[in-house]
Amino acid sequence: MNIYEALSNVKDWRKREYFKWKHNIRYDQRLEKRSEEEFLRYVGRKTMNPFIEFERSPEYKQLLMVYLDSQVANDFDEIYNVVSDKAKQGDEKSIRLFLSMQKDIQSNAKLAAKSLQFVEDDIEDDEEEYEELDLS
Fold first, then answer.
1. Burial class for 73, CB neighbours closer than 10 Å (0-12, 13-18, 19+)
2. Which burial class, exposed, middle or buried, applies to 19 when counting CB atoms under 10 A from its CB (0-12, 13-18, 19+)?
3. Whole-angstrom Cα distance, residue 116 to residue 63?
């Protein structure tokens, strides 16, 4: 599940907008980030108090974990590229780290492939069930 899917489960649109505003994760990055005053005007609130309270909720913490998980993946990509470049230049520490990262990546890729296979199987099962329905 990505952060946008997780946010779609939040019932209060203001909370969704607050999370996107706070972490600057809007789809359209061409627009400048709103100031706090502009954000409050947009959501029709006078203070940030409801959002500060929201930050202490289990729902916010769950959203934060999903968001941070995606950030870790982005950071891992950046680190991989740096280590890979240094390893190609012959840096011994980077070579060892690269080989270690390679094993982790292969292990995680296998898990991801299995997860994606389960999703594909579920979709195929749903399609077969739909085709089996008697629509006459």
1. exposed
2. buried
3. 22
Determine the distance from the C-alpha atom of residue 28 to the mean position of all C-alpha atoms in its chain, rounded to a whole number: 16
- Please state the pTM of the whole predicted model: 0.67
Other CB atoms within 10 Å distance of the CB of residue 10: 18
Query: Tens place of pLDDT for every residue, the chain, 136 residues?
Result: 889 999 999 999 999 999 999 999 987 778 889 999 999 999 999 999 999 999 999 999 999 999 998 898 889 899 999 999 999 999 999 999 999 999 988 888 887 787 766 655 555 555 666 566 555 5
Do the beta carbons of residue 60 and residue 14 sit within 8 Å? no
